[in-house]
C-alpha cells in the first residue's frame, strides 16, 4: 500500500537577507516623459555574448535609473519647499 501524502517542511524563524532585490521593469516608466534618458541608455549596441549584452544593458539602465530617481527626489523636495513658501 502506498500513501499519497507529501512531506512538507515549514521553517519558522527570521528570513535571511538574500541580497539586493532583482531588477524589475515598471510600466509607470513608460508614462513619464522625463524617463527617456533611461530608455536611451538601453539603445547603444553592445558586443559580446547574450549574457554579457543583457548584463551590460541592465547595468547601464540601473545607473540611469538611480540618477533619475535622485533628480526626481530633488525636484519633489524643491516643490515642497516652494509650496511651503507660498
Descriptive report:
This protein has 86 residues and is mostly helical. It has a domain at 49-86. 55% of the residues lie in helices and 0% in strands. The chain is built from 3 helices and no strands. Helix 2 (36-42) packs antiparallel against helix 3. It is flat. The model has no long low-confidence stretch (mean pLDDT 80).
Report a brief summary of the structure:
With 86 residues, the chain is mainly alpha-helical. The chain is built from 3 helices and no strands.
SSE map:
Blueprint: H1 28-31, H2 36-42, H3 50-85
Helix pairs in contact: 2-3
Question: Beta-strand percentage?
Answer: under 5%
End-to-end Cα distance: 80 Å
Order of helices and strands: HHH
Fraction in helix: 40-55%
Count of individual beta strands: 0
The structure class reads mainly alpha
Give a quick set of tags describing it.
single chain; about 90 residues; mainly alpha; 3 helices
Amino acid at each position: 500500500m502506498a500513501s499519497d501524502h507529501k512531506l512538507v517542511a515549514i521553517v519558522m524563524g527570521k528570513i535571511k537577507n538574500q541580497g539586493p532585490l532583482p531588477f524589475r521593469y515598471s510600466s509607470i516608466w513608460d508614462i513619464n516623459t522625463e524617463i527617456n534618458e533611461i530608455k536611451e541608455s538601453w539603445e547603444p549596441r553592445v558586443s559580446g555574448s547574450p549574457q554579457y549584452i543583457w548584463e551590460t544593458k541592465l547595468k547601464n539602465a540601473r545607473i540611469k535609473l538611480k540618477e533619475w530617481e535622485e533628480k526626481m527626489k530633488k525636484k519633489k523636495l524643491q516643490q515642497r519647499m516652494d509650496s511651503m513658501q507660498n
